[in-house]
Amino acid sequence: MGLAGLARGRRVLAAYWGATVVHVAAVVADVKVLKLASKPALMPLLWQWSRTQGAPPLLQAAILASAAGDLLLEADQEIAGMAAFAAAHACYLAVFLANPAQRSWRVLAAYAALWAALIAILAPGLGSRRVPVAAYALLLTATAVTSRWHNPRSGLGGALFLISDSLIAFRMAGRDFRGRGALVMSTYTVGQYLLASGATRQDDLTGSGHPR
């Protein structure tokens, strides 16, 4: 990457974090106009940054599908929003499975137990949405597992994305709490960045361990 490309990448990334701070602040202060204005800018900015990093097409598709999911959730289209994010996770899975540094079965077992516990807790309050939420959560968990197999940076991103969407599921199950919205967006934006940056920085971030 040339100096011009590097500088552009830094500018776009700074804009992404700036939009993130504005949006989270708007969520905390409950400024609806600012929330609606800032959220649609988040994933398009991350997508632009990923292009400066030479992101593969599937990674770019994951970010763009997430942008669609953001808009659908803002329009209270929860099932359609989950479908868009499911497409994003399918793309992430393809990216991370194509180049896993190590396959840790302990990571798989830990996340499988977490998924089962989460569904057991939330299922009574989900009603007719129980099946689609469980299916989406399984896909989200798969992203968390495979991103950790890829490298620690993307693995942290997958974990934060799982936390973010789990907090949304808690609201859907009638278990809302103060500050949840800010936590959702904070973990989501950081998680998405770590997923994207982990997928585009493989040289010094991949683990050196063996399958276990």
From TrEMBL:
The chain crosses the membrane at residues 12-34, 80-99, 105-126. Keywords: Membrane, Transmembrane, Transmembrane helix. InterPro entries: TMEM86B-like. Signal peptide: none annotated. It is found in: Membrane. It is a multi-pass membrane protein. GO terms for molecular function: hydrolase activity. GO terms for cellular component: membrane. The keyword Transmembrane applies. Belongs to the TMEM86 family. PANTHER family: GH04784P. This is Putative membrane protein YhhN. It comes from Kribbella solani.
